[in-house]
Amino acid sequence: MTGSEMDDRAGWRPVARARTYELVIDRIEEQIVSGQLGVGDRLPPERDLAQMLGVSRAAVREAFRALEAQGVLRMAVGTGPDSGTTVAALPSQALTRLLRLHVALANFPMADVVRARIMLERESARNAAQRATEAELEELRELLDEMDAPDCDRERFNDLDTRFHVAIAEAGGNRLVADMTIAIRESLRRPLLAAFDDLGDGWFPIADDLRHDHRLIHQALLARDAADAEAQVERHIRSFYRSAWLQDLG
Predict the structure, then answer these.
(1) Structural domain range at position 125
(2) Is 250 inside a domain boundary?
(3) At a CB cut-off of 8 Å and minimum separation 6, what does 137 contact?
(4) Domain C-terminal end among 88, 113, 141
């Protein structure tokens, strides 16, 4: 065995056999956290990794599939350069998906979710005011114009509203803050649409208020006024929460 082969095997010491596939996952996670594996790196083939860890190929295959479902790994069959099992190239999307599902499933009180949203979106707005490109600011304006269209129904408005807030988060440049903002915002998509529907005809004046708020946020971003952008975002979220759920966050 060559020196490089010995180095490759060093991190793959055998694992205990209880809950084997979960322990295989633990070992792969250790390699990622320690920096031994990074985005795009290829894992050993199932047969080789099973031998290194002292487990069955079935346990390795189950671990691979679980991590693929989480967006951590990408599995591709064949013999070309893109074949085999590699660390996913889009971990940010995987994190967003997992956060969105966990927020949606955890049944947190709406007030708690909204408070968390305010903290994150204030950060995103401040960062966007300082960092957003002209193209990103123009994209925000185009979304606002679409929301102003007479034929924009509630579902379309909700989708555009989500895209507006997500675009601000992405323009902020902090990838983790953006991913968490996106996850929380998208977890609220259905509750927000239900709230729009529950408002009945009361939706129309509230929609006008939302459009006005969005324009004020956009103006603060255009002015590169980070403090105003933060304040406008918080006021906007709090105002809608009071209107839609008839509650105050305190």
Answers:
(1) 92-245
(2) no
(3) 171, 218, 221, 222
(4) 88
Dist. CA 138–CA 218, nearest whole Å = 10
Helix, strand, or coil here: 81?
coil
Evaluate whether 101 touches 190 at the Cβ level (below 8 Å): no
Split at pLDDT 50, 70, 90, the class of 97 is: confident
Please give the DSSP secondary-structure letter assigned to residue 225.
-
Counted domains in the chain = 2
Q: What is the dihedral of CA 12, 15, 17, 19, to 10 degrees?
A: -90
Please, which residues have CB within 8 angstroms of residue 69's CB and are 6 or more apart in sequence?
A: none
Q: What is the mean pLDDT of residues 115-142?
A: 96
Query: Residue 87's beta-bridge partner residues?
Result: 73
Which SS3 state, helix, strand or coil, does residue 80 take?
coil
Backbone angles phi, psi at 73, to 5 degrees: -120, 155
- Report the chain's mean pLDDT, rounded to a whole number: 86
